[in-house]
Structures are given as C-alpha cells and as structure tokens.
Design brief:
By secondary structure, the chain is of the alpha/beta class. It has helices at 40-50, 67-77, 141-153, 169-172, 193-202, 241-253, 258-272; strands at 3-7, 11-18, 32-38, 54-59, 80-83, 94-100, 106-110, 133-136, 158-162, 178-182, 207-212, 215-221, 224-228. The chain has a single domain, classed as 3-Layer(aba) Sandwich (UDP-N-acetylmuramoyl-L-alanine:D-glutamate ligase).
Length: 284
C-alpha cells in the first residue's frame, strides 16, 4: 500500500440538488441534500483511499462543533487527518453548493482557507516519512511550498491541482513534477488554457495536463503534446469530479505512465459524475 500526502483545503460542504439556481428573493425546495467533508485535496484523498492506498490529509480543521461532522465523514472513508490548526475554535470553512438536476452543473459559494493559513513547523520532515506522492491545491501556499521543496529533495513526486490562480503559485508550480490544470486556470499574462499549458511546460514541469470537462484532456510531457479521451456518460452531478480525478491520478501514476494514469483517472472521474454527491460513485 502506497501513502499519499494531501495538503490544502478542508471544508464542510452543504450540497443541494435543485431544479434551478434561485433568483433574487426566490425560495426553492431542494430535491436532495448532503452534508459532507469537502475541498479539492479532501475529495482527492477520499478517492485515493478508496482505490486502496493510505491517505494523509494535512490542513486546518480545529475544534469547533461543526468539525465533528467533517471528522466523522473522513473517518468513515478511512482518511487520516493531520490537523495543524487543532486548537482553533473558529468554524471550519463552509461551502454551499447547488447542483442543477437537468445538467449536473454546480454553483458554489465558499469561504475557502481565508484566515486559516498554516505556519511551517520545525518538524516538517516528519510529515513526509513514508510518503510516496504529494498532492497540493494551493490553499495552504506557504506550507505547501516548504513541503514541496523537501519532497523534491527526497525524490517524492509533487502533483499540483491548479484549479484557479492563487498568489504564491509562481513559486510553487516550478516545484511540481505534475500539474493538472482546470480549463479556466490561467498563468498571469496567458490568455488561453493552451497558452497556459505551454507556459507551464516551458517552466520545466515534466508533466502538464489541462482538463476540459467531458472533452479530451490535453497534455504535454517533456515538451511533447498529447490527448487523452474522456468517457461519455450520463451526467447527474459534476461536483468534485476534478478532485476525484486528481486523487485517482495520484493512485495510478505510482505505477502507470503519465498518459495511462490520466486516462484511468478520467474514467474514475466520469464514473463519479453519474451520481449525486461526491461519495455515491464509490457504492456503485
């Protein structure tokens, strides 16, 4: 069993399945709802663990009563929480998510990690003991950079989930061995996803990919472009699909070539889109 370290955002997600996103002053009744742990690396850690590996989730959680819901959900998924904000009494970041029934598209309101940035401890080396791969989402930027430097020194792969530009990415991205970016992600000065992907490749990052929802994944490996198809499925909910892809990629990349790992991770993410919420696909 391999061990993955997942560094970044831990949230409490309240997810509603609705016919439409309400307009101003409109009240609607949800068809379904779920309350689960969320955040990019959190969902990725759950997928990585489900696929048979050990998952360590490092972030800021604390002791507010709402964190018990997060802890219970992740305990049920077998994810090991490393809480470096353990004495905090502040509520965890909350996300409200509306999933439109007809399209599976989601609208998200979130506080993210604002005001919950972690300092780099003196015993940082311990967190990498036994770790085979690291995934970061950029929500704990300073800590992530410190871990990435040590991971590269130990020849541990560092994967970056580049969902949206965050200050500090200019220092973190060059430390990555693999970057998987969302279509909307842009480096400063780059107008398109393709220009961003090529610029990341020119940074010397050995593996760069861009996801386009249900369209094929575009990638560069060592300067050579390529395309990975994405399975066509009946979409119920796209929430967390990108996160699940990242977690599955970390699992498969430990034993498969980059394009193969992307393809197999895309198949897992597509599977997840056929169910409401970020957990139901694991029960299918």
């Amino acid at each position: 069993m391999a061990c993955g370290l997942f560094v970044g955002l831990i949230t409490l997600d309240c997810i509603y399945r609705v016919d439409n996103v309400p307009a101003s002053d409109e009240k609607i009744v949800a068809q379904d709802c779920q309350l689960v742990a969320g955040g990019p690396v959190t969902n990725a850690a759950v997928a990585f663990r489900y696929l048979g590996q050990e998952a360590r989730l490092l972030g800021a959680l604390g002791q507010h009563p709402l964190t018990s819901l997060i802890r219970a959900d992740l305990a049920a998924q077998g994810v090991d929480i490393w809480d470096w904000h353990a004495q905090s009494l502040a509520p965890p970041p909350l996300s409200t998510i509306l999933v439109t029934t007809a399209t599976g598209q989601r609208a998200v309101i979130s506080r993210n990690a604002v005001g919950r940035q972690l300092e780099t401890p003196d015993n940082l080396n311990e967190v990498l003991n036994g770790v085979d791969i690291v995934l970061m989402d950029g929500h704990q930027m300073a800590l992530g950079q410190a871990i990435a430097v040590l991971a590269r020194q130990r020849h541990i792969p560092v994967v970056i989930d580049a969902g949206s530009w965050k200050p500090g990415f200019e220092s973190l991205l060059p430390l990555a061995t693999s970057v998987i970016a969302a279509e909307r992600f842009r480096l400063p000065g780059q107008a398109t996803a393709e220009e961003t992907r090529l610029a990341l490749d020119r940074m010397g990052i050995s593996e760069v990919a861009t996801t386009y929802g249900g369209a094929p994944i575009q990638f560069c490996q060592g300067g050579q472009p390529g395309t990975v198809p994405v399975p066509t499925v009946s979409v119920v909910d796209t929430l967390g699909a990108g996160d699940i892809l990242h977690g599955a990629f970390c699992h498969y990349r430990l034993r498969e070539a980059f394009p193969v790992a992307l393809a197999r991770a895309a198949a897992v993410a597509a599977q997840s889109c056929q169910y409401f919420g970020p957990r139901a696909w694991m029960k299918s």
